[in-house]
Amino acid sequence: MSEPVTEPVTGGCLCGACTYSTEAQPLNIRACHCRMCRKVTGGAVYARVSVPLDKTDWKGPVGWYQSSPELRRGFCKQCGASLFSERAKDNAIGLTFGTLDHPERFRPEAQIWRSSGLSWIELSEDITCHDQGYV
Ligand SMILES: [Zn+2]
Ligand SMILES: [Zn+2]
Fold first, then answer.
1. Nearest ligand by distance to the CA of 17
2. Secondary structure of 88-110 as H, E, C letters
């Protein structure tokens, strides 16, 4: 895990209409190689900082898409930026790395669904690799 967070974690979409903020510590920080995450983010891999849902605030025109029974994805209705992956059951919301104001403060500790990943994507060797997801 990265260093303890001493300042709020903040971010927002490309057009600036949607912003988010939390003062909570991250639950975990992971990069996912699965096809669904690629589709929804448009990226070759999806890295996110997971934080407690009930301690995270956001504002702006956030739209939601239920991508699986326990997971919904949040995006800006105005510019389309992919912002969140929310698991209400686990009280967790993933903040997309690309929308963080200061992404260099964080670093994934694990990569999941490597078995579904693209062959040319190689993350640092110290980021633990899992063929599938895990809890
Ligand atoms: Zn926007
Ligand atoms: Zn995924």
1. 1
2. HHHCEEEEEHHHECCHHHCCCCE
Which domains does the chain carry? 24-129 (3.90.1590.10)
- CA 83 to centroid of ligand 1, rounded, Å: 9
What's the CA-to-centroid distance between 33 and ligand 2, angstroms?
6
Residue-wise pLDDT for 37-69, tens only, equals 999 999 999 999 999 999 999 999 999 999 999
% pLDDT > 70, the chain: 96
Q: What is the pLDDT of residue 80?
A: 97
Centroid of ligand 2 to alpha carbon of 15 (angstroms):
25
- Please answer whether residues 72 and 83 qualify as being in contact, where contact means their C-beta atoms are separated by less than 8 angstroms: no
